[in-house]
Design a protein that fits this description.
Radius of gyration: 20 Å
Helix content: 25-40%
Bound molecules: 4'-deoxy-4'-aminopyridoxal-5'-phosphate
Number of strands: 12
Shape: globular
Number of domains: 2
Strand content: 15-25%
CATH topology of the largest domain: Aspartate Aminotransferase, domain 2
CATH architecture of the largest domain: 3-Layer(aba) Sandwich
Structural class: alpha/beta
Strand order of the largest sheet: 2-8-7-6-5-3-4
CATH class of the largest domain: Alpha Beta
Distance between the termini: 42 Å
Order of helices and strands: EHHEHEHEHEHEEEHHHEHEEEH
Largest sheet: 7 strands, mixed
């Protein structure tokens, strides 16, 4: 454990700046959601419902499953940890694409298992064929992240189904869809259409991104009851607070959700504006289907990130590969295009 680097959080923005380093939702909380959270304050001397039943019922209705086929957790990262701990132990392997979500390697290490990282394709998407080839009799979990954090590329529905056809039906596949609400490419996989079709598939989603509840920590998994039961066993009990549960329920109320999804549409417009602008400047940016854009800055990664920081824009640098820029405030798009227009990589 001493050798394990702790999870790295994006650095805070300067007072006048923009924090585009954590894929957060730039909009303020909805008043109705904030009120639902405030209402829980009168009973914080009591433990919350350990299983977040009301929220699971709501989600169950939405996805056409029973509440037992829904597991709510302390952010979807906690759910990832629960599934990995339930399935993998020392000597086992967990296969995932790389580069992908920074938390995967640490969670696998904590379980005692070994990470098998399959390099992304040249277009920065998952190489699902290579991932399927990497499965051995020691593999206990495969994680597929679509859209992939930090590159933004999705797996297509056809690619995913062809992949599932190659995966043994007793090998757990976690489809991490933290950013799915921002996807506009109709060919992309949508876990919702896969629910109930595979005995080994769990779909993970979160309220942190599109629903703007990152500070409260609430995510969910949908999948076969037996697999969810194993993950319930590895959970730290009572992880989802009353405030988080209430905020989740309030966010699914029709009026609130309509407003939240209108905000998502606005973020997607900003993403399109940034992506199109970067492409026309000559940036070799891959497809962007999350609330962020990937800049393949290579050896210049740190220098470009520092240049942006000096201009008050905090981004997430992954030297020596690239930079992930979250879609934030409206005006930040123009600021980014202004700075990045001067930094287009030469080797095109
Ligand atoms: N999966 C992916 C791909 C993510 O990028 C994140 C957050 N950065 C998470 C899961 C975890 O989100 P949360 O724990 O806030 O639900």
């Amino acid at each position: 454990m001493a050798a394990l680097p702790p999870y790295r959080q994006g650095r805070p923005a300067p007072a006048e700046g923009y924090k585009l380093s954590s894929n957060e939702n730039p909009f303020d909380p909805l008043p109705g959601v904030a009120e639902a959270v405030a209402a829980t304050a009168t009973a914080i001397n009591r433990y919350p419902d350990a299983t977040a039943l009301t929220l699971r019922e709501k989600l169950g209705e939405r996805f056409g499953v029973t509440p037992d086929e829904v597991l709510v957790g302390d952010g979807s990262v906690a759910l990832l940890a629960q599934f990995i701990l339930a399935a993998a132990a020392p000597g086992d392997e967990v296969v995932y694409s790389w580069r992908s979500f920074e938390a995967y390697p640490g969670l696998v290490t904590v379980s005692g298992a070994t990470s098998v990282q399959i390099p992304n394709r040249a277009d920065h998407g998952h190489d699902l064929d290579a991932m399927a080839d990497a499965i051995t009799d020691r593999t206990r979990v495969v994680i597929v992240c679509s859209p992939n954090n930090p590159t933004g590329v999705t797996v297509t529905a056809d690619e995913f189904e062809a992949f599932m056809a190659r995966v043994p039906s007793d090998l757990l596949v976690l489809l991490d869809e933290a950013y799915v609400e921002f996807v506009r490419d109709a060919a992309s996989v949508d876990g919702r259409t896969l629910i109930g079709r595979y005995p080994n598939l769990v779909v993970l989603r979160t309220f942190s991104k599109a629903y703007g509840l990152a500070g409260l920590r609430v995510g969910y998994a949908i999948g076969p009851v037996a697999i969810l039961d194993a993950a319930r066993a590895t959970a730290i009990p009572l992880g989802v607070t009353a405030a988080a549960g209430a905020a989740g329920v309030a966010s699914l109320e029709p009026t609130a959700e309509t407003e939240l999804l209108a905000r998502v549409a606005e973020i997607v417009e900003r993403r399109t504006r940034l992506h199109t602008g970067l492409v026309s400047q000559g940036w070799p940016v891959p497809d962007a289907q999350g609330n962020f854009v990937w800049l393949p800055t290579g050896a210049d990664t740190t220098a470009v990130a520092e240049r942006l920081f000096d201009a008050g824009v905090v981004v997430r640098a992954f030297p020596p590969e690239g930079i992930r820029v979250s879609i934030g405030e409206h005006e930040s798009v123009d600021i980014l295009l202004g700075i990045l227009g001067e930094l287009v990589p030469a080797s095109q």
